[in-house]
Amino acid sequence: MAAPLVAILVFGAGVLVGGHPDATGITELPDGPRSFLLGGSGESLPSQVLDTLENGYYEDFDEAKLQQSSVDAIIQALGDPYTDYLSPEELRALQVHTEGAYFGVGLEVAQRGGAVVVTRVFVDSPAARAEIEVGDRVLAVDGHRVAGRNLDTVVGGIRGPEGSSVTLRVATPGATPRTVELQRARIAVSPVRSRLVRVGGTPVGYLKLLRFTEGAGDAMRARVERLKERGVRAWVLDLRGDPGGLVAEAVSVAGVFLPDDTLVVTTEGRRSKKRELRTEDPPATDLPMAVLVDENSASSSEILAGALRDDDRATLVGTRTFGKALVQTTRTLRDGGALKLTTARYVTPDGHDVTGTGLHPSVRVVDDPATPVDEALERALAVAAAG
Questions:
Q1: Is 268 in contact with 344 (CB distance < 8 Å)?
Q2: Full pLDDT tens readout for the chain, 387 residues
Q3: Strands, E assignment, 230-386
Q4: Which of 310, 311, 340, 367 is catalytic?
Q5: Displacement of CA 380 from its chain's centroid (Å)
Q6: 35, 311, 324, 340: the active-site residue
């Protein structure tokens, strides 16, 4: 039998975007692949080939490399881009990601023109202790200039194993550039940001959900309760760019806005029975709301947006969502890695399968990146304020 279930997730566009608490798991693979991936009894075809090579090949060979090639070939033959083998290192990184944390120095950066600029510094982080501030420019990472480099590459260079060191060349406006050596640490990231925005005379609570990691529902409820104390009269929930995360957290976030025992999503697969996932807590608010989505809102984002739309709880504003409605399960294997496999499809409460089509907002608006104004957000705020 396979090792215990690690996490149940939905993935989209190659990144973590959702999950499901009771999918069947690795037994959904055909017998041959299942036998090989779980160690088998020596009777599977890959095992026979390896045994024959071991007993007769004319020179030494890397058996582990051949085993990995067999795994890759099996997965490729499935024709499913969302099923994949995770090495032990990749599995650990995934587990950290679903916890809403990463190993780094506590900085968020953005590309502004040709510069990499610090946009956020986490409290009590290595960066904060080194007195790096919002607005500072990162000039180099470990001696490599960042000018002209892809932002993801720069961020990847700053992050790394916990306890390891990274050297940054930093420029504060009006001061001489300085070099600081920072020790990477575990950085906890809140999945929700919020603020109060006044639209005319109406206070609107703006809620930005970054990802559906562990605790996202609790974090959303806490932000809503805090803004309610400031007298908000409507909400804007921004799911733009949110690739998803744990489905359990999508249901939890939905429970902040929908009545108890409201259907959020239905899932079903060849080996996983039909399940209806429902809210389990009283809502924190029933005020009018708009939900902002775009082409990068996927999986758990689409589950949440679809549930709010189908219940007539919110108006969708923005552009068509990504269109990914597959449930996946991550199961550990004997080598310490894991198999991430698709186990079911999901549909919205009204029975809509978003695969390929996504969700189409009733208020379509595209933000123009060339302007300083966020046109989509402005429209969503107006829709929410109008009730």
A1: yes
A2: 333 333 333 333 323 334 333 333 333 344 444 444 444 444 577 777 788 888 888 888 888 888 878 788 888 888 888 888 888 888 887 887 788 888 899 998 888 878 999 988 998 999 999 999 999 999 999 999 998 888 878 988 999 989 999 999 999 999 999 999 999 999 988 899 999 999 999 999 999 999 999 999 999 999 999 999 999 999 999 999 998 889 999 999 999 999 999 999 999 988 888 999 999 999 999 999 999 999 999 999 999 999 999 999 999 999 999 999 988 888 888 888 888 888 889 999 999 999 989 999 999 999 888 888 999 999 999 999 998
A3: 234-238, 263-268, 275-278, 289-293, 315-318, 326-332, 338-347, 363-364
A4: 310
A5: 23
A6: 324
Eight-state DSSP code of residue 373: S
Q: Which of 299, 311, 340, 367 is catalytic?
A: 299
Query: Known catalytic residue: 208?
Result: no
Is residue 165 part of the annotated active site? The answer reads no
Q: Is 353 a catalytic residue?
A: no
The answer to pTM > 0.85 is: no
**CB half-sphere exposure, 337, CA atoms < 13 A:** 14
